[in-house]
Amino acid sequence: NAGVTQTPKFQVLKTGQSMTLQCAQDMNHEYMSWYRQDPGMGLRLIHYSVGAGITDQGEVPNGYNVSRSTTEDFPLRLLSAAPSQTSVYFCASRGLAEPYNEQFFGPGTRLTVL
Amino acid sequence: AQSVSQHNHHVILSEAASLELGCNYSYGGTVNLFWYVQYPGQHLQLLLKYFSGDPLVKGIKGFEAEFIKSKFSFNLRKPSVQWSDTAEYFCAVTTPNDYKLSFGAGTTVTVRA
How far apart are the C-alpha atoms of B111 and B11, rounded to whole Å? Predict the structure, then answer.
């Protein structure tokens, strides 16, 4: 099992550009989520999904879109990048069958918006 | 959403010293509690978790945490740290009917050889 994979690992964008951060998991997990990590602020939830076709907003959803067309994939789209979106982005997944399972995290994408 | 407070932003220790990191949460009902570690340049890994039973939880790499319900706390401890414990440590909480994790701001631990 590869677990949770994310691409790219690093990305530099100019203000106003759009891009998609990819996330995939091969554990057949229903729940997937995106976090951003900023110094001194821990991890903040952007969007999450409890299954294909179902998404919902987290704590800091503005400027980001998600979709969940398959169980495996959960891409995060930045529609018009802003310097405030410079951050490290983590994707995570977990199963729903056992309520207390841990979340598994991907390696992260470090995004810089100039 | 629950709020999670980690008391220390940065802790600097010498090898073999004992470590205790504080974590408090705001939710008054049943909670599930986690400590994650992030080594430099790596992703988050689970150290330990609590959801019921013995309030003293043992995790990987010699770490343990104690859940004190009356104090809304879940402090992380290690009796003797090593240089390889240099990392950022995150406390996180969720409730049984909510899959979303709320994280604390993190504590950076630097262990000097």
Answer: 8
Tell me the per-residue pLDDT of A9-66, one tens digit each, with 9 for 90 and over. Answer: 999 999 999 999 999 999 999 999 999 999 888 899 999 999 999 999 999 999 999 9
Please give the pLDDT value at position B23. Answer: 97
Judged by CB atoms closer than 8 Å, whether chains meet at B43 and A108 is answered as: yes
Average pLDDT over all residues of chain B: 93
* Residue B86 Cα to chain centre, angstroms: 14
Which site among B43, B47, B50, B100 would you substitute to test the A interface, given the most A Cβ atoms closer than 10 Å to its Cβ? B43
How far B66 CA sits from the closest chain A CA (Å)?
18
Beta strands A64-66 and A76-78: pairing type? antiparallel
DSSP, collapsed to helix, strand or coil, labels residue A88 as strand
Contact B74, B83 (CB under 8 A): no
Name the residue among B1, B51, B99 with its Cβ closest to that of A31: B99
- Rounded Cα gap, residues A34 and A45, in angstroms: 6
